[in-house]
Write a structure and sequence with these properties.
The structure is a homodimer of 401-residue chains.
Chain A: H1 3-8, E1 17-22, H2 37-40, H3 44-51, E2 53-59, H4 69-77, H5 88-95, E3 105-114, E4 120-122, H6 130-140, E5 149-156, E6 159-165, H7 196-212, E7 221-228, H8 236-240, E8 244-247, H9 251-259, E9 263-264, H10 272-281, E10 288-293, H11 295-301, H12 305-323, E11 329-333, E12 350-356, H13 369-373, E13 378-381, H14 385-392, E14 398-399
Parallel strand pairs in A: 1-10, 1-11, 2-13, 8-9, 8-10
Antiparallel strand pairs in A: 2-12, 3-4, 3-6, 3-7, 5-6, 11-12
């Protein structure tokens, strides 16, 4: 879909759309013939909503593609994740709530150990404690030079986000991690002329870091990888004419929401109840709300089937608070699947529910993978959900006469 | 789908395909839990056909896109409506059966009222009677100039189709309607060098019209908008190797059929019975038949649920006459949805039935939205139906060895 095309069809109205994303929602039975996490969960509220909804299965990135959280979110947000790539450095910066500018170049950094000859002995510096990581980050922040500003933000243990800010910085850069020990860290090389300035500054930073960390073994050197700038993503306002708000307690999801121009709402606390309270509090000020549930994914990745079931039930119990706000359109979906059976993200299509007054309801009173496979939305690219939601919120004009 | 690709797979055979398009077929229940128009209609013949058919839901233009009649028809005819755009001027000319040439530039015209200072007082000239519109059109036809031929055809009331015929006429032109009263009509401006000649002639025509209409208040001036040339659409014969015929009583649908190279058949009268009779009469002379049913859409747009139900039942009652002709493949579908609930075109996918000897039948003995949602065609772009129909008519060769 051509974005300009959607913009031309915007209709100014007062309708509200809520998108509840349970991270890694899609699942699998633990044994053949069994039920998935979502099918096992007791979800009377979601089932009642499903009866008045169109159901389907969304494919976040492409058939058979297991998405990371970045691409998974871009997909359900309505973007083609193969077109708008979020580099690893950008994700790392977003994850620590760093306010990434459009010209900033971000990288994943980590402390590592080198011997007297400068050869790597441990690529993760023995996973130093986060507190030590923070101390060393302070040291790295003393590195200054003309023409570019450096930022260092601790993620956890040996990991940190590294950002260069300045003009004319390209991000076509090689990484310094040789992916093995017994050899020296590699220099940063520019892959195009527009990135030569970046390469020079990155190498300067690394050289200064080496000197500052010389007596800090095991964290006596750094590695940088995944250099990237923010993709120039059109915002929700530009694209869909929506004043959009995000409710998420984890940095990376707040970051991706910011990337598409959503206003990230403050949440008092980090529970689901706190998240729904934030949504209620801001209901009158926005047209679109994205609410992120992290713990479905955490449980799936931990292989904890029953914990994932319980988190889904917790979300179900909160659904009446959303419905009480009388949203015009509700989307309940996930950014990808994370079956407990696989203990990881997976490629499986994601159960998706679209509720609204003008939705052609399937009359299937159950929200689950197999129920969604029979739904009228069919199996569809995740990026198609937003245009359909906008139409149901009567926010799209007719195309052609 | 690459068109050249389909052409290479043409197989010369004698099979016949019939496509019955009920305009705006798709619907919605009037209240939650209810049935749609098509589900409410008593359709024993379509249900029996459905039992031997593959069912699905077609998306005319794109997810969430509400199609106009032009794009809706191009879609079910097998074309990507985002690629072949039919401008408003072209639709207006097609609607009055004007034989639009490939280089003609068409526009929507209307009479309007201006005051002594030339400022608009009524953009529709008080919706003058059609007879007066026809009288004034005769007057406008007296405008002649060297290098280009002008055509004026009354649509109804204040509306007319305006066409310029000549060489080197581009259609990148601005419209003259300022969309408000109290200001003067705008001049036509060329948006590229190739359209400067068109702009000059259009402005010349408007200037002559102003003089001729000076004493014809309330219709003392004209407005022109939606300048466009016919899109260069490959014909059904070029594309599919089909000798195609169209049965439609409304001008616009005859026009779109002509655009794709169908022969428009004469219809004695304007009832559905007359249309089916025209199809029977010409059965031996063509490979493909498109039969258009207008009144489903008219009823939907009027919000008349029961009238739409009755029109569908009327079509059902005529289906045995089609089946008696022993078509090899039958498509029953719509160009878009027009739910009575919305009183307008809508974005909802369209119930679609594909019958044929070699169709893998779903065994669902019902033709309705929810039945189609469970069908083997799935949710598919409307433009994919024709290639599938051709294959079922054994008109596509094997691709590759």
């Amino acid at each position: 879909m051509d974005y300009k095309f959607l913009q031309d069809l915007d209709v100014p109205v007062q309708t509200k759309i809520a998108m509840i994303i349970m991270d890694g929602l899609g699942g699998l039975p633990m044994e053949p013939g069994g039920k998935t996490e979502l099918e096992t969960a007791r979800t009377p509220n979601l089932d009642a909503l499903a009866a008045q909804s169109a159901l389907g299965l969304t494919v976040p990135v492409g058939p058979g593609i297991t998405p990371g959280s970045g691409p998974g979110h871009l997909g359900i947000f309505g973007y083609d994740p193969l077109h708008y790539e979020i580099g690893r450095g950008v994700l790392e910066a977003l994850g620590v709530d760093f306010e990434l500018g459009p010209d900033d170049v971000a990288a994943r950094g980590n402390f590592c150990s080198v011997d007297g000859a400068g050869l790597l002995t441990d690529r993760r510096a023995g996973r130093i404690p986060t507190d030590l990581g923070k101390e060393l980050a302070k040291l790295l922040r003393t590195i200054k030079t003309d023409g570019v500003e450096f930022f260092v933000e601790t993620v956890k243990e040996h990991r940190f986000a590294f950002v260069m800010r300045g003009s004319g910085l390209g991000d076509a850069l090689t990484e310094t991690d040789p992916q093995k020990t017994g050899v020296a860290a590699l220099p940063v090389r520019a892959l195009n002329p527009g990135s030569e300035k970046s390469a020079m500054f990155a190498n300067h930073f690394i050289e200064q870091a080496r000197k500052l960390l010389a007596d800090k073994h095991p964290a006596n050197m750094i590695l940088l990888r995944g250099f990237a700038k923010s993709p120039a993503v059109p915002t929700y306002h530009e694209l869909f004419g929506l004043r959009a708000a995000a409710v998420a307690v984890n940095g990376m999801y707040r970051g991706v929401a910011k990337l598409v121009g959503m206003t990230v709402l403050p949440v008092d606390g980090d529970t689901l109840v706190d998240e729904f309270a934030a949504l209620e509090k801001n209901w009158h000020d926005f047209d679109f709300f994205y609410l992120h549930v992290k713990k479905t994914d955490t449980a799936g990745e931990a292989g904890d089937f029953l914990r994932k079931v319980r988190v889904i039930e917790e979300v179900d119990a909160l659904m009446p608070r959303l419905i009480a706000l009388k949203p015009d359109v509700v989307i309940v979906s996930g950014d990808h699947s994370s079956p407990a059976l696989l203990k990881s993200h997976s490629w499986h299509p994601v159960p998706t529910l679209l509720y609204g007054k003008y939705v052609r309801a399937d009359g299937i009173a159950q929200f689950g993978e197999r129920a969604c496979a029979r739904g009228g939305l069919g199996v569809l690219p995740a990026k198609d959900v937003m245009p359909i939601a906008l139409a149901n919120a009567q926010r799209s004009a007719k195309f052609g006469a």
